[in-house]
What we know:
Radius of gyration: 25 Å
Strand content: 15-25%
Oligomer: single chain
Number of strands: 12
Helix content: 25-40%
Number of helices: 16
Order of helices and strands: EEEEEEEHHEEHEEHHEHHHHHHHHHHH
Structural class: alpha+beta
Shape: globular
Amino acid sequence: MDNGCTATSIDVGTPALRQGxxxxxxxxxxxxxxxxxxxxxxxxxxxxxLFGRNWEFKIFPGGQRGAQDGxxxxxxxxxxxxxxxxxxxxxxxxxxxxxRNVRSFRFDSEGETTKHFQLGKRAAIVGNPEKYLRDGxxxxxxxxxxxxxxxxxLHYVPRNPCGGAILKMMDDESSADVVFQLSGKRKMGExxxxxxxxFILEACAPGLAELSKKYAKLTPVPIANVRPEVFRxxxxxxxxxxxxxxxxxxxxxxxxVAAGRFGVSNLKVEAEAAYTEFTTISVDNVLENFLFADxxxxxxxxxxxxxxxxxxxxxxxxxxxxxxxxxxSTLFHDFMTAVxxxxxxxxxxxxxxxxxxxxxxxxxxxxxKLDGRGLDIDGTxxxxxxxxxxxxxxxxxKRSRDENSCPNKSPPKRQLSTxxxxxxPPPPTPPPNRVKRAAL
Length: 440
């Protein structure tokens, strides 16, 4: 209610937050009077600076398409700066405990990743002013902490040297017990060799570990059909390095194939995410991308293909035939999942604990929940749903710390494909007779 009085909120001292957390409070005045129009945010967006990056926060009093009907929605987007993973809590009620129900989200690139929050039913907020509104004002609180952030200190504290020390062990001939030999050649005609340690391979790349066991200690293990720069970057990743972004963008399919072949699930998912992000699906490449995603079990890429098919079905059916798709493919299942998700988008973006909604969850949400439970994040959408359902049926038990000690490790429950033990053929391309175009 406007009574001609202006109020300014001033903090005295430092809010009693746990170390590492930053709190933002967005005050939406006269909330009940705002128009409840779907997809219409309060303008202009709220801009703020955090962790050396620029962010944008939007509030949709009437909700968004894809969210539950009648829910107030907010969005949080990285506008400028490098990607990062953040822990967060967002609420329309006071937050008393930052140690419970904290969620994580990965912002991968500028402007491309947006986190959606459903705060609750607008009718419930407006109908309970004593609980949610103060003098007609709705306060939305966002608490953020950079994932993996070290506790601040007034004094210089060096970083743990373990990661750097392990990374330096790669190519150390004096301590290595495995050597890989690639077909690519260096100058002077020497074969490319990479020196490794079996304990690293066993922890993070079961495919390479099994392959190395077929040869005596320090006997060169031949690696075929992989570019030396791709394989070297993959091994660096096993030792804790970050995969070079330029290489991921230049050769994502080769990285997906190599990582899948040697059982490095996290790297495969990272390369798949990059490929999916910068690939535009069209009528000309939809079948090629479907066949690749189906063969290599790239659930995120296949989800994007299926969304394209649902949205452009008439055009696709008039120009392309899928009757020659592999008999083992899950085309029908994935298509029906996409149709169901389009019909109830709130289920696709649902990240709660109701098993009846797992089948229509997005691939990103499934992977985030599986990773949080220490389970494998690779595989088809159906495989991930089954694994998550089984985890909940078992009482939601997470794997032990020993089973989940290496972030790049592919869990032992997942049976290793025999293709990791033998050099695979180059990535296949669909034969001409698979794509049948109708006359335009």
